[in-house]
Amino acid sequence: MTATLETDIAIIGTGAGGGTLAYALRDVGARVALLERGDFLPAEDENWSAASVFGDQRYKTSELWRDERGRPFRPSMHYFVGGNTKVYGAALARMRREDFSEYRHEDGLSPAWPITYEDLEPYYTRAEDLYGVHGATGEDPTDPPRSGPYPFPAVADEPVIAALRRRLEAQGLHPYALPLGIDLRDGGLCVRCGTCDGFPCKVNAKSDADIRCVRPALESPNVLLRTGVYVERLITTPNGERVVEAQARTRGGPLRILADAFFVCCGAVNSAALLLRSANPSHPDGLSNSSGLVGRNYMGHVHTAILALGPRRNRTTFQKTLAVNDYYHGDEGWPWPLGTLWLIGKAQAPMLRAAVNRLPNEIAGTLARRSVDWWACSEDIPSPDRGVAVDPDGTLRITWRPTNLESHRRLVRHAKRMLRGAGYPLVLTRLMDVEFNAHQCGTARFGTDARDSVLDPFCRSHDVQNLFVVDSSFFPSSAVLNPVLTIAAQALRVADRFAAA
Ligand SMILES: Cc1cc2nc3c(=O)[nH]c(=O)nc-3n(C[C@H](O)[C@H](O)[C@H](O)COP(=O)(O)OP(=O)(O)OC[C@H]3O[C@@H](n4cnc5c(N)ncnc54)[C@H](O)[C@@H]3O)c2cc1C
Ligand code: SF4
């Protein structure tokens, strides 16, 4: 028998987009139902075990997707209340002002957004408050203007990183404090452990969408959360103008969700897949797909992991405090943007063994003891021939190859030079592939013209009146800094508009 849930607003997915939206809509006087395929991530010792999290991949989905050649891979997806933010590195950066304009790159145009930095600025400020961001102003020359300071001071560097910062400054670079959402305020819950980036937080001190948004939203009598609800399909009126129902699979059997407004917030791949699966005679190519762009323009950033090996042991616990944007807009002799460099969580032997097949334990241990660990990230350029499709057997297929590779290689060369100059003679690097899809975006881009975008500038479908997509799908370009603060800021903006309508 099919059960039915009636509500005013249905939010499908509880990650950065859905969680923030639920928080923002909790008191607008409407019933809000949050529908999440996963469960709450349990607080347990394994949360902070590198062997469990990276070795056994305890929290990563066991679902398999296919790459463009049909090879199966296990994507970097975490299906829990809070979505991928449960394991994210809590770097909460604003995009730069230039990222909102058309910007020429090595491999083509990074398209303009239909909104400006100034449109989003007040919402960035609110998102930083909501996610309790620690940061510092005046250090990074690419910083956009802000209407106020960060809610909390920057997270301090530990001694090895403080020394590295000084050596980078001596090279004329401008290292800056990475804006971070961890509860390190006076009396805060964070114990500054070494298992934050890529791990769940066992003490609920990381500003993920579950802790910061979903749980506070559930304090409102208007908000209901149903976990273990996998939404398979959206059903429209016969003329296709409105969604009337979401059909879901649950452990207890099928569930119909009836609502006045539907917010799809499943992440860029799963949201596109849900719209494509919802094709019907009024929307033969998928819901909200008159532009033909649902699932297209998938972007993922171009990522390289960097291990800089020094002569001495690196005893840093919480390492992810520093970033460098000096190559953001290019370098002398290369007119196109290169990207950004930031420190990541301290590598541990099981993490290296999980990344490099058959790496002997002893070597992994030696590397991890001596390394300072960085990430190089370059912008990925959208293209309609790269995207998400649903194969006939229901498996998701991702067609993606990294773009801007020469710019990215230049960025990595700069990183190597900078780190060697700072006392780390051996620098190892590894380019990430399609499996590392943590920064996926772009599959239902927003814009003002229904012919070349799926959503309007407030993330409402151009085609279906009561359908919204509020997650990283709306990004017309990937920019280069971490996406969550931008997703959260836009979710707050969408909620304001929706509540005012
Ligand atoms: C290891 C790692 C580190 C990262 N570090 C950072 C960082 O430091 N800073 C940063 O900004 N970003 C970081 N990211 C990226 C960041 O986590 C994502 O960009 C962000 O979570 C995307 O938000 P979203 O709302 O688009 O999707 P998600 O957060 O993925 O949320 C989607 C939600 O929808 C649910 N869902 C999916 N399909 C369905 C369905 N059919 N029915 C019901 N529910 C469904 C999922 O379970 C999930 O809860 C990191 C990601 C990873 C994996
Ligand atoms: S560093 Fe703080 S926020 Fe991060 S996992 Fe450890 S306790 Fe949690």
Short descriptors:
single chain; 501 residues; FAD/NAD(P)-binding domain; 6-stranded antiparallel beta sheet; 5-stranded parallel beta sheet; 10 helices; 23 strands; 23% helix; binds flavin-adenine dinucleotide; binds iron/sulfur cluster
Rg, Cα atoms, Å: 22 Å
Strand line-up in the sheet with most strands: 10-17-18-19-16-22
Report the top-level CATH class. Answer: Alpha Beta
Remind me, CATH topology? Answer: FAD/NAD(P)-binding domain
> Main β-sheet, in a few words?
6 strands, antiparallel
Uncertain stretches of 5 or more adjacent residues = none
Apparent shape: globular
Number of domains: 1
What do we call the CATH homologous superfamily? FAD/NAD(P)-binding domain
Summed over residues and divided by their number, the pLDDT gives a mean of: 97
Question: Could you walk me through the main structural features you see in this protein, from its secondary elements to its overall organization?
Answer:
This protein is of the alpha/beta class and 501 residues long. It has a single domain (3-500), classed as 3-Layer(bba) Sandwich (FAD/NAD(P)-binding domain). The protein is 23% helix and 20% strand. The protein contains ten helices and 23 strands. The protein has a six-stranded antiparallel sheet with strand order 10-17-18-19-16-22. A five-stranded parallel sheet has the order 11-3-2-15-23, covered by helices on one side. The radius of gyration is 22 Å and the shape is globular. The model has no long low-confidence stretch (mean pLDDT 97). The protein binds flavin-adenine dinucleotide (FAD) and iron/sulfur cluster. Flavin-adenine dinucleotide binds at residues 12-18, 35-38, 76, 79, 83-85, 87-91, 198, 229-231, 265-268, 270, 274, 438-439, 471-472, 482-484, 487.
